[in-house]
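User: Can you help me understand a structure? I only have the sequence.
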Amino acid sequence: MSKDNSKRERLVSAAARLFWHQGYHGASIKDIAQEAGVPLGNVYYYFPDKAKLALAVAQIFTAETEKMLDEVSAASHDPRKRLVQLFDRLATSDSSRVLHGCPIALACRDFREPAADAAAEAGNAFSRLIVWIAKQRQTMGERPSIALTDARQAIVEWQGAIAVAHALQDTMLLGEAHRRIRRNLTSRTKLH
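Assistant: Let's start by predicting it. Here is the structure, written out as tokens:
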């Protein structure tokens, strides 16, 4: 990895952490540069403004989501096992989401006004999850419209559980939601 790529990646990583923990408006370019260990003046070489940095963070969310879905897809051909594995993977970050909320949802909210392209890109991570879950349900024999509804409902429940678990600082709420989502997505043997 070149020195330039390393600095750029450190800036994006630092921005992702600070946007998540402090919000878009609470994290200054100076804070991000300091967290990344990059001189403040160098930030503008990579990102002409904060909105471009937010877009790079959102692109990381989408890329990480795609990578996770590819890995889960490659691990099994059984759609039920894939769905269980997906929510098992999502559960690995429960404790950090209870502490700070969902970084993707926060990015969608915080980026919307100052960096609309970044907000839309962050939302793509949710769209990809919904489409992937719906495809698994269709493979199980469910009609496309019902599969899409089930997928949306799963993501809505997951995100709602994160919001409430974060508000109450209660990891158990999120664990219960994961179990319910897995059961709802995989337990039906006869589908519509």
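Now, to help you interpret it: The first helix runs from residue 3 to 22. The radius of gyration is 18 Å. Let me know which part you'd like to focus on.
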